[in-house]
TrEMBL record:
UniProt cross-references to SMART domains, sorted A to Z: GAF, PAS, PP2C_SIG
Catalytic activity reported: O-phospho-L-seryl-[protein] + H2O = L-seryl-[protein] + phosphate
Protein name listed in UniProt: protein-serine/threonine phosphatase
GO MF entry, a single one: ATP binding
Cross-referenced CDD domains: PAS
Enzyme Commission identifier(s): 3.1.3.16
Organism from which the protein derives: Streptomyces dangxiongensis
Length: 707
């Protein structure tokens, strides 16, 4: 066990190393993400140079997300984004929520395992490239962070990020201690200054001239946010200019009207300790007036941060695939964004609400709430689904007035019920709940109402996807062998992995065919296409191979007969196939290939390599094609790995290099457990998180004892 003091020391050492990394890199903002124990998400642990509220959309990032830190972790490389234009091309969702001139780099934090990722951000004025020295510094710093994490783990303190990231102040040496120090900082930054803000946007200093121009006393403004204490600055465009200054670290100018008709120019000059603001009467042509602060609106303007948050979440919801993805996104990004501690997401099914996912509730409460009719009066769900209008309850008493039993079952203190409606049709309900009473401001209600429509669309698409995927995978599994036959003298294991994206049916297959007491055939193949026709052809190819193999024909004859069938049945679909005949009595293996990737062979004491099997053409091209035969001895301990191209093909990577890398991974792997061996090969190939193609593997290991 490690004492609390020891754990604090580990975190302090990690924070110090992280802050030093950001400073040495010359970055203005830094973030350290840690991988969750299940390996599915990156959680923001510590932030440098920006308020925590800025990072709300990125507090949790799925490792499969199209984001720089996720790419850096998955690909084990430094991701460099030189400009906002490059960001928009490569990471449109991130660019939508960060529409400011900047450059950034993301790097994996890796030691004995992958621990997380480091994110660094610079103003756009820096050179649009990274030198080898900079890359080397970032890599060595990430290695140091990994070692500190591993030391903490050795002490029994596995690093687990909190609900909110720790925020490190960049200006520890000269951090402002009050208005006097803020004024001194301001004088250093600007001659004849006016006022100063900290990085959170609060006033820390105002000169007499600033107070006169703003029309308020310093005591009324110090410690407040301008858009809260000065109602005429309560417009998203003005808060956006402050955010632009903090993130880009470049000067920003905007013009605002102090009622009734006094126009002021605001010049913002940021650095690591805050923002100096020079306020002067506006000259020249005045811009169009923003909305009047005395308009008939009954709700205040939505904060700029909320707008960017809404855009980010909207983009994220367009990318979810299945129902579980929707649940995870709402739980990991929407719940923290609105401070909720609990969630229930229900889907309409046959006139009832079935709970598809939840967080923060005990199973007994969920069981009582599951299966309620759509028109229930037990909770507010029925009313919000009928009306399509969200309902917000600030405390249990507010709930009890209309639904006396609901608050008792829930055990929560405040609730937001969001109806999920698509084209006038209820598809479900999203309930955010809180452990303490909570007032829902108008801006929160507006954003949550907008999000409800987006969640509804995403949930409806996801349910359709899950239905089609289950049907496709059911068909796929029905066409694959349920179990592999036991073969004396051989250990065998196989795996089929569907693609992680898309709803198409895969065409990869494998089979093991006993041929009497002393022979067995192994076959693996890949039908072109990813639809029902490809799956049907895959089943016919398996049947044809079985039929020809049972006749005792040679591997080339098996492929030739199957080829004629494929050519007749589907002249527009092609199939790669590898057939291996194991003669256990004669101690030899005979192989033939129809355009399939070569198997990898491992021989005790003789290394591991791709086996040279000259391929014939793909099945279905030429009905008279011939298929060359390769024969190798069945030596004691021989291991043969057959696979489809989904295991080795990567965009931009040379196929031969990927196959050689697979042979290297096989040479280094433990072969004691073949299922664990397959896990290793899939993991080393980088396909454990995201696959754009399906994969089939078949591993055969000779185990007959010999003198």
């Amino acid at each position: 066990m490690t004492s609390a003091g020891g754990q604090a020391t580990d975190a302090e050492a990690r924070d110090a190393a992280f802050a030093e990394t950001v400073r040495r890199a010359g970055a203005t903002i830094g973030a350290l993400y840690l991988l969750t124990p299940d390996g599915q998400q990156l959680c923001l642990d510590v932030l440098y140079g920006a308020p925590a509220d800025f990072a709300v959309p990125w507090t949790r990032i799925p490792v499969t997300a199209p984001a720089p830190v996720a790419d850096a972790l998955r690909d084990d490389r430094v991701v460099w984004v030189a400009s906002q234009e490059e960001m928009a091309r490569g990471y449109p969702r991130t660019a939508m929520a960060l529409p400011y001139p900047l450059a950034l780099a993301a790097a994996p934090v890796t030691g004995i395992r992958r621990w997380g990722a480091l994110l660094l951000m610079w103003p756009a004025a820096r050179p649009p490239y990274m030198t080898q020295r900079e890359r080397g510094h970032i890599a060595s710093s990430c290695g140091r962070l990994a070692r500190l994490i591993e030391e903490a783990v050795d002490h029994g303190a596995f690093p687990v990020p909190g609900d909110r990231p720790r925020v490190l102040a960049p200006d520890r040496v000269r951090r402002s201690a009050g208005p006097e120090m803020a004024a001194a900082d301001f004088v250093e930054r600007l001659p004849g200054g006016s006022c100063a803000l900290d990085l959170d946007g609060n006033f820390t200093y105002l000169s007499a001239g600033a107070c006169e121009l703003l029309g308020r006393e310093a005591g009324d403004l110090l410690g407040t946010l301008p858009w809260q204490s000065l109602r005429w600055l309560d417009e998203p465009v003005y808060e956006d200019r402050y955010r632009a200054a903090v993130i880009s670290r470049e000067p920003v100018v905007f013009t605002a009207c102090r009622p009734p008709d006094r126009w002021l120019d605001f010049h913002l000059y940021p650095d690591v300790s805050g923002i100096s603001v020079r306020i002067v009467p506006s000259g020249g042509e005045r811009p169009p007036s923003p909305a009047s602060p005395y308009s008939s609106r009954t709700t205040p303007a939505t904060r700029a941060g909320r707008l960017y948050q809404l855009m980010h979440l909207a983009a994220a919801l367009t990318e979810v695939v299945g129902v579980q993805d929707v649940i995870d996104l709402v739980a990991d990004q929407i719940m923290p964004a609105f401070g909720a501690q609990s969630l229930v997401l229900s889907a309409a099914d046959a006139g009832r609400l079935r709970i598809t996912g939840y967080r923060g509730y005990d199973p007994e409460s969920v069981e009582r709430l599951d299966g309620l009719p759509l028109d229930t009066v037990f909770t507010p769900v029925g009313r919000v689904l009928r009306s399509g209008v969200p309902a917000f309850f600030a405390d249990p008493e507010d709930m009890r007035r209309s639904y006396p039993e609901a608050s008792v079952v829930s055990g929560k203190q405040a609730w937001a019920f969001l109806p999920l409606i698509v084209s006038g049709r209820p598809v479900g309900c999203c309930i955010l709940s809180y452990d303490e009473p909570r007032v829902f401001p108008a801006e929160d209600r507006a954003v949550l109402t907008s999000l409800a429509g987006l969640i509804a669309q995403a949930l409806d698409r996801a349910r359709l996807y899950d239905t089609k995927r289950d049907l496709a995978h059911g068909l796929q599994q029905a066409l694959l062998p349920r179990t592999l036959p036991a073969v004396t003298g051989l250990r065998v294991a196989a795996r089929y992995l569907p693609a992680t994206r898309g709803m198409d049916i895969g065409g990869d297959f494998y089979d093991l065919i006993p041929l009497g007491d002393s022979a067995v055939a192994a076959v693996i193949g890949d039908v072109q296409g990813h639809d029902a026709a490809a799956a049907a052809l895959m089943g016919q190819v398996r049947t044809a191979v079985h039929a020809h193999a049972a006749l005792g024909t040679t591997p080339d004859q098996v492929l030739a007969g199957t080829n004629r069938l494929v050519t007749d049945l589907c002249p527009d679909l092609f199939t790669s196939c590898l057939y291996a005949h194991f003669d256990l009595a004669g101690r030899r293996v005979t192989l033939a290939s129809a355009g399939h990737p070569p198997p990898v062979v491992r021989l005790p004491g003789r290394g591991t390599r791709p086996l040279d099997v000259p391929p014939g053409p793909l099945l279905g091209i030429d009905p008279e094609a011939a298929f060359p035969v390769t024969e190798i001895p069945l030596t004691p301990g021989l291991m043969l790995v057959l696979y489809t191209d989904g295991l080795v093909e990567r965009p931009g990577a040379d196929l031969e290099d990927s196959i050689i890398a697979l042979a290297h991974h096989l040479a280094q792997a433990d072969t004691g457990d073949l299922e664990a061996l397959i896990d290793t090969l899939v993991g080393k190939a980088g396909t454990s998180w995201q696959r754009t193609d399906d994969i089939a593997l078949l591993v055969l290991h000779e185990t007959t004892p010999h003198p």
